[in-house]
Amino acid sequence: METIVKPDPVRRGARMPDYAAACRTFSWAEARAQMSGLPDGRGLNIAHEAVDRHAETRGTAVALRILGRDGATTDITYADLRRRTSRFANALGMLGVTRGERVFTLLPRTLDLYVAALGTLKAGCVLSPLFSAFGPEPVAERLRLGEGCVLVTTPRLYERRVRPVRDGLPALRHVLLTGDPAAGPDDGDEGFSSLAHLLEAADDAFAIPPTDPEDTALLHFTSGTTGRPKGAVHVHEAVVAHHATATAALDLGADDVFWCTADPGWVTGTSYGIVAPLTHGATLLVDEGDFDAERWYRVLADQRVTVWYTAPTALRMLLRHGTDAAARHDLSALRHVASVGEPLNAEVVRWSAEALGTPVHDNWWQTETGAIMISNFAAEDIRPGSMGRPLPGIEAAVLERGPDGRALRVDGGVREVVDPGTDGELALRVGWPSLFRGYLDQEERYAASFADGWYLTGDVVRRDADGWFWFAGRADDVIKTAGHLVGPFEVESVLMAHPAVAEAAVIGKPDPVAGELVKAFVTLRPGWEPDAALHDELLGFARRRLGSVAPKELTVDPHLPHTRSGKILRRLLKARELGLPEGDLSTVETS
């Protein structure tokens, strides 16, 4: 059994002090009752729960604290956030954008992003946030699939990420540019508008329209192993799980200063970097700066952060600086640290206990689950390396796997693994509010994600005799790098757009900091030489089109392994790259 790291007893005043009792007494109906709902019984709206209800009762409390790159600090109260988000909702109406239409954001972490996100939800439109480090191809693919009619972005990001692909986006009617209006095109020119001008002209009062809990609210794209990205559809009812899980897993309350370092372009940065802390009335810290160890420690100390949610990659980068860097700062306010996005090394948990004064509490969830499902809790002992145990209201199981690595289906049903410590596919019993309601325009793919009342996660885990879950890997080829999912197909497709490339295959390669790096293998067309210049050209080509999800390594291989049906065997490439057993080769094509 792994060493158990105990949180500091002084900090055990957790909001969920007894896990077993919480599991016995929890109900989603009671969790739903904690939401205020729209006035006059008009339904449930995420923006109302996150902003307007607090503006009524504690409007002077700080909702957002924005830390600028230049060191300036801007506080936005709940009352001010209500006015700003109401202006945005009214601005959408002025543009003729109607309920249910999709509004995309491609923005850095600035105030405009949070106003646009919450204003979109107020208006009854669907929010789809994009990661600002995406290249033009991923941006265009998601805007096409989501039929985005509005894009909110900066002039610089528009020129670099959107203009090269604008002609292929027929549904995009409005581009709202942030910042100085003089820095972008004129208002109305080819559908451009200055966000500042729109907000100035809009009313700061807005009555949120009736919102059914099952109305679509969020569209998050996640990568698959083959084909296009998957658009996971979430509804306003998801806010019930955002709020409840923030209490149970993140120990979050109204008196906290909360910092989530995830970009809102990823589901963590939306569910817990916008919605959950605001539903609790907490102060949400927003740092416009990039990762820098000294800056991050200074933020934690100077802002008296109490709850910190970050990625294992970031923690591993801090670990490289040892404990001395942390010791130079007063981190006494920090009472709970949690991580998500990729497996958390046991070494990092132990380092955190020493350097930060409290161990990191790992947790697990997916874009599709919408909220945290499994966690190490504030009042519980930690087993370093473990995902933890299911949250109250969540039933998890380990299912037997078939030859394809996925849950074995027998007569339409599935079988649970009996023996502790045996690998199987993680499954969750359907029934929590933030479970996705579909993959956009991919009904069959959505249906295949369920069997016998279970949601099949595609993650391989084992459960020990005491009920703790341990991550073993993915059942498919999706790559987890720096907390983000990267679909091999999307990267391979871009590489094959280069005239030199005949075939491409992409794998995840273990990396001590990022978890995995994206590595590409390519076969060249006749007439091309595999020299250093071409190697650098291919990496640069991919980087310009894909941005942050581009491969970091590339190898020219004239003999990529295929099945007899012609499919490239990524698993065999990975086994050879890492010196692992090659497994069953019966389907491999032989020359």
Automatic annotation (TrEMBL):
Gene this protein is translated from: acsA
- Keyword Acyltransferase in the entry? The reply is no
Key words, A-Z:
Acetylation, ATP-binding, Ligase, Nucleotide-binding
The major lineage groups are:
Bacteria, Bacillati, Actinomycetota, Actinomycetes, Pseudonocardiales
The protein's matches in PROSITE patterns, at most eight in alphabetical order, are given as: AMP_BINDING (PS00455)
What protein name is recorded for this chain?
A: acetate--CoA ligase
* Keyword hit for Magnesium: no
Pfam families in UniProt: AMP-binding, AMP-binding_C
Query: The AMP-dependent synthetase/ligase domain covers which part of the protein?
Result: 52-440
EC number in record: 6.2.1.1
The record's SUPFAM superfamilies line, in alphabetical order, gives: Acetyl-CoA synthetase-like
Per the database record, which ranges form the AMP-binding enzyme C-terminal domain? 490-567
**Family annotation (InterPro entries):** AMP-bd_C, AMP-bd_C_sf, AMP-binding_CS, AMP-dep_synth/lig_dom, ANL_N_sf
